[in-house]
# Entry
Amino acid sequence: MSANTSRIMSDSLLEVQDLSVSYHSHRGTVQAVRNVSFSLGREKLGIVGESGSGKSQTGRAILGLNDANAEIKASKLSFDGIDLLNADNATLRAVRGNRISMIMQDPKYSLNPVMNIGKQIMEAYRVHHKSSRREARERSLAMLEAVQIRNPERVMRAYPHEMSGGMGQRVMIAMMMIPEPDIIIADEPTSALDVTVQQQVLELLDELIISRGLGLIFISHDLNLVSRFCDRVLVMYAGQVVETIAANVLHEAQHPYTRGLLNCMPRIDAPTAELPTLRRQDTWAIDQAKVGATHVGS
Amino acid sequence: MLEAKDLSVNFGKGRASFQAVKEANFTLYAGESLGLVGESGSGKSTILRAIAGLVNSWSGEIELQGRGLIGRNRSMVFRKQVQMVFQDPYGSLHPRHTVDQILGESVRVHKLGDADKRVLRLLDEVGLSANFRFRYPHQLSGGQRQRVAIARALIVEPELILLDEPTSALDVSVQAEVLNLLTHIKRDRGLSYLLVSHDLAVISHMCDRLLVMQHGAIVETLTVQQLRDKAPTQAYTRELLNASV
# Structure
């Protein structure tokens, strides 16, 4: 176990320790993320939880993309020796998109509606690499082929509204892959897609991640999906990680919250008259850092 | 209870015309839950909207208890018999009306009288305390809003409820609560449901029979038992089933 852990540590691309995100307003402080720690190697890490659990805020905090009034704290937030928390804007710009990129949920809102696909992908490449238009164009076409778009020439000229959801999401993946990042943060990348299309997009993402040796943070509310797709899963509740578990044994999860979430989903092969509901316990939301502190004190 | 014969829906005119539903035939029996499953754009919601009188250009026949429906006109009798619950609990409630106004409006429109008592009874039935009566939708969570939408449908004591993706905007834990609520109400009141969902697991939990739709056409009708026995005959249904397990 310890040998295994140290191997992951030495390969680790991203180190996050005690990450907290809070929002201050005149009504008081909301702690969206509380003391989240994890490291990411060249693997597929899932973050699951319900809406409001802090999973998206965690993903965004890595690139400092939270709203302007967010206060982000961490004892360590480092990527390849770069301290992301205290980096200046120029350093952050060199990381964002180029070395860590982000795939959003809905291509309809994340692509520029008045720019054709080709220009957007070429821009993504040329912002980060000095290159001629011609080279950028060739690379974009190759990338569109890599995401299995059948007629890349036509798609290059098309506008986002002419794409189906699945195609739009492939374009997004192409755009995020083309600067050749080390880490991809995907925030509900397939939630807006139909199940059969979802499967195709995931297979594609999986192939690209493995063949290029990337690290992936996969944020989702869908436990089944994460357990099929990822290597390791963080389960978040009320801003904290309540359980970290290997994805293939997610169905044997121990924490009552994870168990509750798994049980309350209807299943085709196991009919019940009534679905078990999740009984939330106050103890799940207790600040684990403070509990730890009292233990040390007493 | 409800029968559709050669129901087609067309959008647009001339060359730009698009047939969203292609000659759908189905029957919903009294007391039954019938599921409509398919991917986005398959026409499943359009069928509900045609029944509810929310689309103009449908052809074929829709009969409710033997009486044919015409165009977008729906009688007061129909509106009392059939109610609809929409997908988005954020968009389907008036943002500047309190829960009391939202529920009270139906009572007034249908001249049912005794609004006070009805509103309180309905809130209780959908599992909301009387405290919620004077709140606005923005003060409610997604699950609570969907409970209000269900209460609004129930308050006129309908026989059939059209459910358009009633839980797909909700977390799974909240989905379980809302589905249980729908199960209880159906049992207590002997309702019929026509439930649209993209989620085969939700359909199999709630329904007795289901229609599988693809590209506007009903490709297969099967019982939930046949679905569980992995007995679909159509390749498309099998594909959906594989993607959902």
